[in-house]
Amino acid sequence: MSEQPFFHSGETPLTDVIRKLGRAFLEDLRETNYLLGSGLDPARRVADVHERHQQITSPELFARFREWLKNGGDEPGAPLLHEFLVTQQINRELRGLTDEINRFELEQQGLAGREMVPFRAFPTRLANAANPAERRELHKAFMELHRKFQPLYRRKFETAWEWEEKLGYPTTIQRFERLSGIELTPLRDGMREFLSRTGDPYRDLLRSRRAALEGVDTPTGADLPWAFRGGEFDRFFEPAPMVEAARGFTGAMGLPWDGRRVTLDIEHRPGKRPRAFCSAIRAPHRVILVLEPKGGFADYRTFLHELGHALHYSNVDEHLEFEFANLGDNSVTEGFAMTLDHLAWDRVWLLKTLKMPRIHVEEFTRFAWTWHAMLLRRYAAKIEYEMALHGARSFHGMEEHYAQAQGAATLFHTTGEPYLYDVDDNFYCARYLRAWMFAAAMHEGLRERFDEDWFLNPRAGPFLKSMMAQGQRWPADELLRRNGMPGLSAGALWRRLEEAAG
Question: The pTM is what?
Protein backbone atom coordinates (compact mmCIF):
# COMPACT_ATOMS: atom_id res chain seq x y z
CA MET A 1 0.00 0.00 0.00
CA SER A 2 1.58 3.28 -1.09
CA GLU A 3 1.39 5.65 1.87
CA GLN A 4 -0.46 8.97 1.69
CA PRO A 5 0.76 11.07 4.64
CA PHE A 6 -1.85 12.73 6.79
CA PHE A 7 -2.02 16.51 6.38
CA HIS A 8 -3.90 18.77 8.75
CA SER A 9 -3.76 22.51 8.20
CA GLY A 10 -5.18 23.35 11.61
CA GLU A 11 -8.04 25.41 10.19
CA THR A 12 -10.54 22.64 11.00
CA PRO A 13 -10.53 21.08 14.50
CA LEU A 14 -8.72 17.74 14.45
CA THR A 15 -11.73 15.90 15.85
CA ASP A 16 -13.92 17.19 13.00
CA VAL A 17 -11.35 15.95 10.50
CA ILE A 18 -11.43 12.52 12.15
CA ARG A 19 -15.23 12.49 12.04
CA LYS A 20 -15.29 13.29 8.32
CA LEU A 21 -12.61 10.72 7.46
CA GLY A 22 -14.10 8.10 9.79
CA ARG A 23 -17.61 8.45 8.38
CA ALA A 24 -16.40 7.90 4.81
CA PHE A 25 -14.18 4.98 5.84
CA LEU A 26 -16.88 3.17 7.83
CA GLU A 27 -19.47 3.60 5.09
CA ASP A 28 -17.09 2.03 2.56
CA LEU A 29 -16.03 -0.73 4.97
CA ARG A 30 -19.61 -1.62 5.90
CA GLU A 31 -20.65 -1.71 2.25
CA THR A 32 -17.73 -4.04 1.52
CA ASN A 33 -18.50 -6.30 4.47
CA TYR A 34 -22.15 -6.45 3.43
CA LEU A 35 -21.28 -7.49 -0.14
CA LEU A 36 -18.82 -10.09 1.18
CA GLY A 37 -21.10 -11.45 3.91
CA SER A 38 -24.17 -11.59 1.70
CA GLY A 39 -22.32 -13.48 -1.02
CA LEU A 40 -23.19 -10.78 -3.57
CA ASP A 41 -19.59 -9.86 -4.36
CA PRO A 42 -17.04 -12.39 -3.11
CA ALA A 43 -14.25 -10.55 -4.94
CA ARG A 44 -14.42 -7.52 -2.64
CA ARG A 45 -11.31 -6.91 -0.53
CA VAL A 46 -11.03 -5.18 2.84
CA ALA A 47 -7.47 -4.20 1.91
CA ASP A 48 -8.89 -2.07 -0.91
CA VAL A 49 -10.97 -0.09 1.59
CA HIS A 50 -7.82 0.66 3.58
CA GLU A 51 -6.09 1.68 0.36
CA ARG A 52 -8.88 4.17 -0.41
CA HIS A 53 -8.92 5.63 3.12
CA GLN A 54 -5.31 5.72 4.20
CA GLN A 55 -5.54 8.95 6.17
CA ILE A 56 -7.96 7.65 8.82
CA THR A 57 -5.56 4.81 9.69
CA SER A 58 -2.34 6.75 9.18
CA PRO A 59 0.22 6.75 12.01
CA GLU A 60 0.52 10.53 11.58
CA LEU A 61 -3.15 11.17 12.36
CA PHE A 62 -3.03 8.75 15.28
CA ALA A 63 0.04 10.49 16.72
CA ARG A 64 -1.60 13.91 16.31
CA PHE A 65 -4.73 12.72 18.13
CA ARG A 66 -2.77 11.26 21.03
CA GLU A 67 -0.77 14.49 21.26
CA TRP A 68 -4.07 16.40 21.35
CA LEU A 69 -5.25 14.18 24.22
CA LYS A 70 -1.95 14.57 26.06
CA ASN A 71 -2.20 18.37 25.79
CA GLY A 72 -5.61 18.41 27.43
CA GLY A 73 -7.85 17.82 24.43
CA ASP A 74 -11.28 17.03 25.78
CA GLU A 75 -14.64 16.50 24.09
CA PRO A 76 -17.53 14.23 25.13
CA GLY A 77 -16.86 11.87 22.22
CA ALA A 78 -13.05 11.82 22.51
CA PRO A 79 -12.86 8.40 24.27
CA LEU A 80 -14.96 6.84 21.51
CA LEU A 81 -12.76 8.38 18.81
CA HIS A 82 -9.66 7.13 20.62
CA GLU A 83 -10.99 3.56 20.80
CA PHE A 84 -11.91 3.72 17.11
CA LEU A 85 -8.47 4.97 16.05
CA VAL A 86 -6.62 2.35 18.10
CA THR A 87 -8.81 -0.41 16.65
CA GLN A 88 -8.21 0.80 13.11
CA GLN A 89 -4.44 1.00 13.66
CA ILE A 90 -4.55 -2.73 14.39
CA ASN A 91 -7.07 -3.54 11.64
CA ARG A 92 -4.81 -1.78 9.17
CA GLU A 93 -2.10 -4.35 9.91
CA LEU A 94 -4.64 -7.18 9.68
CA ARG A 95 -6.20 -6.13 6.37
CA GLY A 96 -4.43 -8.77 4.26
CA LEU A 97 -5.19 -11.55 6.74
CA THR A 98 -8.83 -10.44 6.87
CA ASP A 99 -9.09 -10.97 3.12
CA GLU A 100 -7.34 -14.33 3.36
CA ILE A 101 -9.84 -15.45 6.01
CA ASN A 102 -12.78 -14.29 3.89
CA ARG A 103 -11.42 -16.18 0.86
CA PHE A 104 -10.95 -19.32 2.96
CA GLU A 105 -14.55 -19.19 4.15
CA LEU A 106 -15.83 -18.70 0.62
CA GLU A 107 -13.63 -21.21 -1.20
CA GLN A 108 -12.97 -24.13 1.17
CA GLN A 109 -15.09 -27.27 1.07
CA GLY A 110 -15.08 -30.41 3.18
CA LEU A 111 -15.82 -33.99 2.18
CA ALA A 112 -18.75 -35.34 4.22
CA GLY A 113 -19.54 -38.88 3.12
CA ARG A 114 -19.45 -38.61 -0.66
CA GLU A 115 -20.40 -34.94 -0.84
CA MET A 116 -18.31 -31.78 -0.91
CA VAL A 117 -19.89 -29.20 1.44
CA PRO A 118 -18.89 -25.49 1.41
CA PHE A 119 -17.46 -24.21 4.70
CA ARG A 120 -20.28 -21.71 5.18
CA ALA A 121 -22.96 -24.35 4.55
CA PHE A 122 -21.97 -26.64 7.44
CA PRO A 123 -23.90 -24.88 10.26
CA THR A 124 -27.19 -25.06 8.35
CA ARG A 125 -26.57 -28.65 7.28
CA LEU A 126 -25.77 -29.71 10.85
CA ALA A 127 -28.89 -27.99 12.19
CA ASN A 128 -31.08 -29.90 9.74
CA ALA A 129 -29.43 -33.35 9.90
CA ALA A 130 -31.85 -35.67 11.70
CA ASN A 131 -29.63 -38.74 11.32
CA PRO A 132 -26.89 -39.02 14.02
CA ALA A 133 -24.47 -40.75 11.61
CA GLU A 134 -24.90 -37.97 9.06
CA ARG A 135 -24.25 -35.38 11.78
CA ARG A 136 -21.03 -37.13 12.77
CA GLU A 137 -19.82 -37.16 9.15
CA LEU A 138 -20.64 -33.48 8.70
CA HIS A 139 -19.07 -32.48 12.00
CA LYS A 140 -15.87 -34.43 11.31
CA ALA A 141 -15.47 -32.70 7.93
CA PHE A 142 -16.26 -29.30 9.47
CA MET A 143 -13.68 -29.75 12.22
CA GLU A 144 -11.06 -30.80 9.64
CA LEU A 145 -11.62 -27.47 7.87
CA HIS A 146 -11.31 -25.65 11.19
CA ARG A 147 -7.97 -27.43 11.70
CA LYS A 148 -6.84 -26.06 8.30
CA PHE A 149 -8.04 -22.61 9.40
CA GLN A 150 -5.89 -22.49 12.55
CA PRO A 151 -2.60 -21.19 11.02
CA LEU A 152 -4.42 -18.14 9.60
CA TYR A 153 -5.94 -17.35 12.96
CA ARG A 154 -2.66 -17.83 14.82
CA ARG A 155 -1.10 -15.23 12.49
CA LYS A 156 -4.05 -12.93 13.11
CA PHE A 157 -3.75 -13.14 16.91
CA GLU A 158 0.04 -12.83 16.88
CA THR A 159 -0.15 -9.71 14.67
CA ALA A 160 -2.84 -8.11 16.83
CA TRP A 161 -0.93 -8.85 20.05
CA GLU A 162 2.27 -7.41 18.58
CA TRP A 163 0.56 -4.17 17.53
CA GLU A 164 -1.30 -3.79 20.80
CA GLU A 165 2.04 -3.80 22.57
CA LYS A 166 3.47 -1.24 20.13
CA LEU A 167 0.49 1.00 20.86
CA GLY A 168 1.06 0.78 24.62
CA TYR A 169 -1.28 -2.02 25.70
CA PRO A 170 0.49 -5.04 27.28
CA THR A 171 -2.57 -7.26 26.76
CA THR A 172 -5.88 -7.25 24.88
CA ILE A 173 -7.60 -7.18 28.27
CA GLN A 174 -5.91 -3.89 29.18
CA ARG A 175 -6.63 -2.41 25.76
CA PHE A 176 -10.32 -3.26 26.04
CA GLU A 177 -10.73 -2.03 29.60
CA ARG A 178 -8.76 1.20 29.20
CA LEU A 179 -10.48 2.21 25.97
CA SER A 180 -14.04 1.02 26.63
CA GLY A 181 -14.22 1.75 30.36
CA ILE A 182 -15.75 -1.72 30.88
CA GLU A 183 -14.12 -3.95 33.50
CA LEU A 184 -13.91 -7.57 32.38
CA THR A 185 -13.03 -9.25 35.68
CA PRO A 186 -16.31 -8.39 37.50
CA LEU A 187 -18.23 -9.48 34.40
CA ARG A 188 -16.34 -12.78 34.24
CA ASP A 189 -16.86 -13.35 37.97
CA GLY A 190 -20.58 -12.66 37.66
CA MET A 191 -20.83 -15.22 34.86
CA ARG A 192 -18.86 -17.75 36.93
CA GLU A 193 -21.61 -17.45 39.52
CA PHE A 194 -24.17 -17.74 36.73
CA LEU A 195 -22.63 -21.06 35.61
CA SER A 196 -22.68 -22.32 39.18
CA ARG A 197 -26.26 -21.23 39.88
CA THR A 198 -27.72 -22.52 36.61
CA GLY A 199 -26.08 -25.96 36.49
CA ASP A 200 -29.04 -27.86 37.97
CA PRO A 201 -31.79 -25.79 36.26
CA TYR A 202 -30.04 -26.27 32.92
CA ARG A 203 -29.82 -30.04 33.43
CA ASP A 204 -33.54 -30.07 34.23
CA LEU A 205 -34.33 -28.09 31.09
CA LEU A 206 -32.04 -30.23 28.93
CA ARG A 207 -34.09 -33.33 29.68
CA SER A 208 -36.77 -31.90 27.38
CA ARG A 209 -34.43 -32.48 24.41
CA ARG A 210 -34.13 -36.25 24.90
CA ALA A 211 -36.41 -37.01 21.96
CA ALA A 212 -34.24 -34.91 19.61
CA LEU A 213 -31.20 -36.91 20.75
CA GLU A 214 -32.71 -40.34 20.29
CA GLY A 215 -30.02 -42.84 19.34
CA VAL A 216 -27.23 -40.73 20.87
CA ASP A 217 -25.50 -42.10 23.96
CA THR A 218 -23.14 -39.18 24.58
CA PRO A 219 -24.23 -35.86 23.00
CA THR A 220 -21.40 -34.03 21.22
CA GLY A 221 -20.88 -30.84 19.29
CA ALA A 222 -22.13 -32.72 16.23
CA ASP A 223 -25.55 -33.06 17.90
CA LEU A 224 -25.91 -29.60 19.45
CA PRO A 225 -27.24 -27.68 16.38
CA TRP A 226 -29.86 -30.39 15.71
CA ALA A 227 -30.84 -30.66 19.38
CA PHE A 228 -31.67 -26.96 19.45
CA ARG A 229 -33.14 -26.77 15.96
CA GLY A 230 -36.62 -27.41 17.40
CA GLY A 231 -37.96 -28.85 14.17
CA GLU A 232 -41.04 -30.21 15.92
CA PHE A 233 -42.25 -26.61 16.26
CA ASP A 234 -41.72 -25.61 12.61
CA ARG A 235 -45.47 -25.54 11.92
CA PHE A 236 -45.74 -22.49 14.18
CA PHE A 237 -42.86 -20.69 12.45
CA GLU A 238 -43.67 -20.84 8.75
CA PRO A 239 -41.45 -18.59 6.58
CA ALA A 240 -44.20 -16.70 4.75
CA PRO A 241 -45.80 -14.78 7.66
CA MET A 242 -42.54 -13.89 9.46
CA VAL A 243 -41.97 -10.41 8.03
CA GLU A 244 -45.60 -9.33 8.19
CA ALA A 245 -45.91 -10.56 11.78
CA ALA A 246 -42.95 -8.35 12.67
CA ARG A 247 -44.36 -5.38 10.80
CA GLY A 248 -47.65 -5.89 12.58
CA PHE A 249 -46.51 -5.71 16.19
CA THR A 250 -43.80 -3.05 15.66
CA GLY A 251 -46.38 -0.89 13.86
CA ALA A 252 -48.91 -1.45 16.64
CA MET A 253 -46.48 -0.20 19.27
CA GLY A 254 -45.54 2.87 17.24
CA LEU A 255 -42.17 1.70 15.91
CA PRO A 256 -42.87 1.14 12.20
CA TRP A 257 -40.23 0.46 9.54
CA ASP A 258 -40.23 0.19 5.78
CA GLY A 259 -37.93 -0.13 2.78
CA ARG A 260 -36.97 3.53 2.73
CA ARG A 261 -34.43 3.03 5.50
CA VAL A 262 -34.38 -0.72 6.16
CA THR A 263 -33.66 -3.20 3.36
CA LEU A 264 -34.20 -6.93 3.85
CA ASP A 265 -31.78 -9.48 2.37
CA ILE A 266 -33.32 -12.70 3.71
CA GLU A 267 -33.36 -15.10 0.77
CA HIS A 268 -31.02 -18.07 0.38
CA ARG A 269 -27.86 -17.34 -1.58
CA PRO A 270 -24.76 -19.51 -2.09
CA GLY A 271 -21.82 -17.98 -0.27
CA LYS A 272 -23.95 -16.04 2.21
CA ARG A 273 -22.61 -16.21 5.76
CA PRO A 274 -24.63 -18.53 8.00
CA ARG A 275 -24.40 -15.98 10.82
CA ALA A 276 -26.96 -13.23 10.27
CA PHE A 277 -25.94 -9.59 10.54
CA CYS A 278 -27.24 -6.06 10.16
CA SER A 279 -25.16 -3.53 8.29
CA ALA A 280 -25.72 0.13 9.19
CA ILE A 281 -24.00 1.40 6.07
CA ARG A 282 -25.20 4.96 6.63
CA ALA A 283 -27.32 5.25 9.75
CA PRO A 284 -30.11 6.18 9.93
CA HIS A 285 -30.72 6.30 6.17
CA ARG A 286 -29.38 2.99 4.83
CA VAL A 287 -29.57 -0.16 6.92
CA ILE A 288 -29.51 -3.73 5.54
CA LEU A 289 -30.71 -6.80 7.46
CA VAL A 290 -29.04 -10.01 6.22
CA LEU A 291 -30.26 -13.52 7.04
CA GLU A 292 -29.45 -16.90 5.51
CA PRO A 293 -32.60 -18.93 6.28
CA LYS A 294 -32.26 -22.17 8.24
CA GLY A 295 -35.95 -22.71 9.01
CA GLY A 296 -38.34 -22.57 11.93
CA PHE A 297 -37.83 -20.88 15.27
CA ALA A 298 -34.17 -20.09 14.47
CA ASP A 299 -35.21 -17.86 11.59
CA TYR A 300 -37.85 -16.00 13.62
CA ARG A 301 -35.61 -15.30 16.61
CA THR A 302 -32.69 -14.35 14.34
CA PHE A 303 -34.87 -12.08 12.21
CA LEU A 304 -36.20 -10.36 15.34
CA HIS A 305 -32.65 -9.96 16.63
CA GLU A 306 -31.42 -8.30 13.45
CA LEU A 307 -34.61 -6.25 13.27
CA GLY A 308 -33.76 -4.90 16.73
CA HIS A 309 -30.44 -3.70 15.30
CA ALA A 310 -32.17 -2.27 12.24
CA LEU A 311 -34.72 -0.37 14.32
CA HIS A 312 -31.94 1.01 16.50
CA TYR A 313 -29.78 2.16 13.58
CA SER A 314 -32.68 3.53 11.53
CA ASN A 315 -33.99 5.60 14.45
CA VAL A 316 -30.66 7.19 15.38
CA ASP A 317 -30.90 10.98 15.42
CA GLU A 318 -29.40 12.02 12.07
CA HIS A 319 -27.83 15.07 13.72
CA LEU A 320 -25.77 13.05 16.22
CA GLU A 321 -22.00 13.38 16.02
CA PHE A 322 -20.27 10.61 14.08
CA GLU A 323 -18.93 8.86 17.16
CA PHE A 324 -22.29 8.70 18.97
CA ALA A 325 -24.11 7.39 15.90
CA ASN A 326 -21.47 4.88 14.79
CA LEU A 327 -19.13 4.01 17.67
CA GLY A 328 -19.46 3.39 21.41
CA ASP A 329 -20.66 0.49 23.53
CA ASN A 330 -22.14 -2.14 21.20
CA SER A 331 -23.84 -3.67 24.24
CA VAL A 332 -26.49 -1.06 23.44
CA THR A 333 -27.35 -2.12 19.89
CA GLU A 334 -27.00 -5.77 20.88
CA GLY A 335 -29.27 -5.04 23.83
CA PHE A 336 -32.01 -3.64 21.59
CA ALA A 337 -31.56 -6.66 19.32
CA MET A 338 -31.98 -9.05 22.25
CA THR A 339 -34.92 -7.10 23.62
CA LEU A 340 -36.71 -7.92 20.39
CA ASP A 341 -35.44 -11.48 19.87
CA HIS A 342 -36.53 -12.49 23.39
CA LEU A 343 -40.11 -11.98 22.21
CA ALA A 344 -39.77 -15.15 20.11
CA TRP A 345 -40.24 -17.17 23.32
CA ASP A 346 -42.37 -14.72 25.30
CA ARG A 347 -45.64 -16.46 26.19
CA VAL A 348 -47.79 -13.37 25.63
CA TRP A 349 -46.15 -12.56 22.28
CA LEU A 350 -46.61 -16.17 21.12
CA LEU A 351 -50.31 -16.04 21.98
CA LYS A 352 -51.14 -12.55 20.75
CA THR A 353 -48.82 -12.07 17.78
CA LEU A 354 -48.00 -15.56 16.53
CA LYS A 355 -51.40 -16.99 17.57
CA MET A 356 -49.72 -20.17 18.84
CA PRO A 357 -52.35 -22.46 20.39
CA ARG A 358 -52.18 -22.16 24.16
CA ILE A 359 -51.82 -25.93 24.53
CA HIS A 360 -48.40 -25.80 22.81
CA VAL A 361 -47.01 -22.63 24.41
CA GLU A 362 -45.69 -24.26 27.57
CA GLU A 363 -43.85 -27.03 25.70
CA PHE A 364 -42.36 -24.59 23.22
CA THR A 365 -41.23 -22.00 25.78
CA ARG A 366 -39.51 -24.74 27.78
CA PHE A 367 -37.60 -25.72 24.64
CA ALA A 368 -36.71 -22.08 23.89
CA TRP A 369 -35.54 -21.40 27.43
CA THR A 370 -33.36 -24.52 27.22
CA TRP A 371 -31.74 -23.13 24.08
CA HIS A 372 -31.32 -19.74 25.73
CA ALA A 373 -29.77 -21.29 28.84
CA MET A 374 -27.29 -23.19 26.66
CA LEU A 375 -26.34 -19.99 24.83
CA LEU A 376 -25.84 -17.97 28.01
CA ARG A 377 -23.74 -20.73 29.55
CA ARG A 378 -21.71 -21.00 26.35
CA TYR A 379 -20.88 -17.28 26.51
CA ALA A 380 -20.13 -17.44 30.21
CA ALA A 381 -17.50 -20.05 29.30
CA LYS A 382 -16.30 -17.93 26.37
CA ILE A 383 -15.38 -14.89 28.46
CA GLU A 384 -13.47 -17.09 30.90
CA TYR A 385 -11.57 -18.77 28.06
CA GLU A 386 -10.95 -15.58 26.05
CA MET A 387 -9.52 -13.77 29.07
CA ALA A 388 -7.17 -16.73 29.59
CA LEU A 389 -6.13 -16.72 25.92
CA HIS A 390 -5.52 -12.97 25.69
CA GLY A 391 -3.96 -12.83 29.13
CA ALA A 392 -1.44 -15.54 28.30
CA ARG A 393 -0.79 -14.37 24.72
CA SER A 394 0.06 -17.98 24.00
CA PHE A 395 -1.72 -20.81 22.21
CA HIS A 396 -0.23 -23.48 24.49
CA GLY A 397 -2.99 -25.60 26.00
CA MET A 398 -5.73 -23.31 24.70
CA GLU A 399 -7.36 -25.83 22.36
CA GLU A 400 -7.88 -28.15 25.32
CA HIS A 401 -9.01 -25.26 27.53
CA TYR A 402 -11.63 -24.24 24.99
CA ALA A 403 -12.95 -27.78 24.54
CA GLN A 404 -13.17 -28.39 28.30
CA ALA A 405 -14.86 -25.05 29.03
CA GLN A 406 -17.47 -25.38 26.29
CA GLY A 407 -18.18 -29.02 27.09
CA ALA A 408 -18.71 -28.28 30.78
CA ALA A 409 -20.96 -25.31 30.00
CA THR A 410 -23.18 -26.87 27.32
CA LEU A 411 -23.02 -30.51 28.52
CA PHE A 412 -22.26 -31.52 24.93
CA HIS A 413 -18.81 -33.09 24.47
CA THR A 414 -16.83 -30.49 22.52
CA THR A 415 -13.68 -30.72 20.44
CA GLY A 416 -11.17 -27.88 20.31
CA GLU A 417 -10.58 -27.21 16.62
CA PRO A 418 -12.49 -23.84 16.56
CA TYR A 419 -10.59 -22.51 19.59
CA LEU A 420 -9.43 -19.43 17.65
CA TYR A 421 -12.22 -19.16 15.07
CA ASP A 422 -14.77 -18.95 17.89
CA VAL A 423 -13.24 -15.79 19.36
CA ASP A 424 -14.94 -12.56 18.34
CA ASP A 425 -12.74 -9.50 17.93
CA ASN A 426 -12.24 -6.97 20.72
CA PHE A 427 -13.94 -8.99 23.46
CA TYR A 428 -17.30 -8.80 21.74
CA CYS A 429 -18.40 -11.66 24.00
CA ALA A 430 -18.44 -9.08 26.82
CA ARG A 431 -20.75 -6.86 24.76
CA TYR A 432 -23.10 -9.82 24.23
CA LEU A 433 -23.18 -10.68 27.93
CA ARG A 434 -23.92 -7.07 28.88
CA ALA A 435 -26.56 -6.99 26.14
CA TRP A 436 -28.38 -10.00 27.60
CA MET A 437 -28.40 -8.19 30.94
CA PHE A 438 -29.66 -5.05 29.14
CA ALA A 439 -32.48 -7.04 27.52
CA ALA A 440 -33.48 -8.60 30.86
CA ALA A 441 -33.67 -5.12 32.39
CA MET A 442 -35.61 -3.78 29.40
CA HIS A 443 -38.21 -6.55 29.55
CA GLU A 444 -38.71 -5.96 33.26
CA GLY A 445 -38.99 -2.21 32.80
CA LEU A 446 -41.21 -2.37 29.71
CA ARG A 447 -43.65 -4.74 31.42
CA GLU A 448 -43.86 -2.44 34.42
CA ARG A 449 -44.50 0.66 32.28
CA PHE A 450 -46.58 -0.74 29.42
CA ASP A 451 -47.97 -4.08 30.71
CA GLU A 452 -47.11 -7.63 29.67
CA ASP A 453 -48.10 -6.95 26.04
CA TRP A 454 -45.88 -3.87 25.83
CA PHE A 455 -45.01 -4.84 22.23
CA LEU A 456 -48.60 -3.91 21.23
CA ASN A 457 -48.85 -0.77 23.37
CA PRO A 458 -48.73 2.39 21.18
CA ARG A 459 -46.88 4.24 23.96
CA ALA A 460 -43.99 1.74 24.03
CA GLY A 461 -42.70 2.52 20.54
CA PRO A 462 -42.11 6.24 21.12
CA PHE A 463 -40.35 5.41 24.40
CA LEU A 464 -38.04 2.94 22.65
CA LYS A 465 -37.51 5.36 19.78
CA SER A 466 -36.36 8.06 22.22
CA MET A 467 -33.78 5.62 23.61
CA MET A 468 -32.68 4.50 20.16
CA ALA A 469 -32.31 8.07 18.93
CA GLN A 470 -29.29 8.47 21.22
CA GLY A 471 -27.29 5.94 19.20
CA GLN A 472 -24.53 4.78 21.51
CA ARG A 473 -23.77 8.09 23.17
CA TRP A 474 -24.10 6.35 26.53
CA PRO A 475 -22.87 2.88 27.56
CA ALA A 476 -25.58 0.30 28.22
CA ASP A 477 -25.75 0.73 32.01
CA GLU A 478 -25.91 4.53 31.75
CA LEU A 479 -28.62 4.43 29.07
CA LEU A 480 -30.76 2.24 31.31
CA ARG A 481 -30.22 4.50 34.31
CA ARG A 482 -31.13 7.63 32.35
CA ASN A 483 -34.41 6.01 31.32
CA GLY A 484 -35.44 4.71 34.72
CA MET A 485 -34.72 1.07 33.96
CA PRO A 486 -33.12 -1.57 36.22
CA GLY A 487 -29.34 -1.88 35.95
CA LEU A 488 -27.13 -4.58 34.41
CA SER A 489 -27.01 -7.72 36.53
CA ALA A 490 -25.96 -11.34 35.97
CA GLY A 491 -28.40 -12.17 38.76
CA ALA A 492 -31.33 -11.13 36.56
CA LEU A 493 -30.24 -13.76 34.03
CA TRP A 494 -30.09 -16.72 36.39
CA ARG A 495 -33.27 -15.73 38.21
CA ARG A 496 -35.20 -15.85 34.92
CA LEU A 497 -33.72 -19.26 34.07
CA GLU A 498 -34.54 -20.68 37.47
CA GLU A 499 -38.10 -19.46 37.02
CA ALA A 500 -38.30 -21.01 33.52
CA ALA A 501 -37.01 -24.34 34.84
CA GLY A 502 -39.70 -24.36 37.49
Answer: 0.96
